[in-house]
Specification:
Helix content is 79%, strand content 0%. It is an all-alpha fold. Helix 1 runs antiparallel to helix 2, helix 11 runs antiparallel to helix 12 and helix 12 runs antiparallel to helix 13.
Length: 328
């Protein structure tokens, strides 16, 4: 909060004294990065749009590509996949121009473009971008350039995680499990067994295990993911609510409908408070409602879920959930 207050003053002074566009864009990007760290993506978005507009008049490929990547990342978090994909696609050649040869910044943007393709359901295109990013990073690791001097790196772990999610969405569960295993091994080696970054990988591996019928492995991973999310983010965090929906599916499979219902009701209440424009959270909210509807055979919940899913159809996960609902 103190940092945001100081930056707000700096922004006001820059506007008052007509500071150069580059300085104003840098301040906006810093404020937006703090909002993103707090998962306040919709607060970050207008600042990043303003920063990008300022950078459009700048011939500096490095700064323009950074603004494009930052806005694309923020839009991706709230499910605006189509626009995010276009921003990453514009940023990638600029990254290559600004950072000749192989560089982590280029790899990050290519990975982000792969994530946008994956979330849109374009799995072949996603794999191609993941391959490109991984190829560059492995070469950097081998040459010990750019500060990379070991067999593991957070971006490589992130790539493995994103590959796993793509494989799961494409119904290739063995490939998904193998990719999640790689991601978790890397994250644990880099950050320890209780690192916050592990929560998503554990949750997704648990979901893949449930889909293959391994309920014990699913429960072990998802309970661990929930414990990490609760410790780091607190009881009312959307990321914990998402985890509770996944755990409830395991409990239903184990025959404990009452415990599952309690988790789903908690998750529903948290996800219902997400901003209406956050299509990713709306999709997760719909997943909670559909799970409750399945328990209670409640058509009103299915209608509510459909209403949440309709604006989120650019997300392949939202389309899959809508397909499960069938014809209205």
């Amino acid at each position: 909060d103190d940092a945001l207050a100081v930056l707000a003053d700096a922004r006001r002074w820059q506007q008052e004294f007509d500071a150069p566009a580059g300085e104003r864009a840098t301040t906006l990007n810093i404020i937006a990065s703090i909002y993103n760290d707090q998962s306040r993506f919709l607060d970050a978005e207008p600042l990043l749009r303003e920063a990008l507009a300022l950078r459009r008049g700048d011939a500096d490929a490095r700064e323009l590509s950074t603004s494009l990547n930052n806005l694309g990342y923020t839009l991706l978090q709230t499910g605006r996949v189509v626009e995010a994909r276009a921003l990453f696609a514009e940023a990638l050649p600029l990254r290559r121009q600004a950072f000749p040869g192989r560089h982590t910044e280029t790899a990050i943007t290519e990975m982000n473009l792969g994530v946008a393709e994956r979330d849109a359901g374009e799995f072949a295109a996603a794999d191609a971008h993941f391959d490109g990013a991984e190829r560059d990073l492995v070469a950097l690791l081998a040459s010990e350039r750019d500060g990379l001097d070991g067999p593991r790196h957070p971006i490589l772990a992130g790539l493995a995680l994103h590959r796993g999610i793509a494989a799961a969405l494409a119904d290739d569960l063995p490939a998904a499990r193998a990719a999640f295993d790689r991601a978790i091994e890397q994250y644990e080696a880099l950050f320890g067994p209780d690192a916050p970054v592990l929560a998503t990988a554990l949750r997704e591996r648990g979901s893949a295990s449930l889909a293959t019928g391994d309920r014990a492995a699913a429960r072990r991973d998802i309970e661990r993911a929930c414990a990490i999310s609760q410790r780091v983010r607190g009881d009312d965090a959307p990321v914990l609510a998402i985890c509770r929906v996944r755990l409830a599916r395991v409990l239903v499979a184990d025959g404990d409908a009452d415990a599952a219902r309690g988790l789903l009701e908690q998750a529903r209440d948290v996800l219902a408070r997400a901003p209406a424009d956050d299509r990713r959270m709306a999709t997760e909210h719909a997943a909670a409602l559909l799970a409750l509807a399945a328990l209670d055979d409640d058509d009103a919940l299915r209608v509510a879920a459909r209403a949440l899913l309709e604006p989120a159809q650019e997300l392949v996960r939202a389309r899959r959930l809508a397909e499960e609902l069938g014809t209205p």
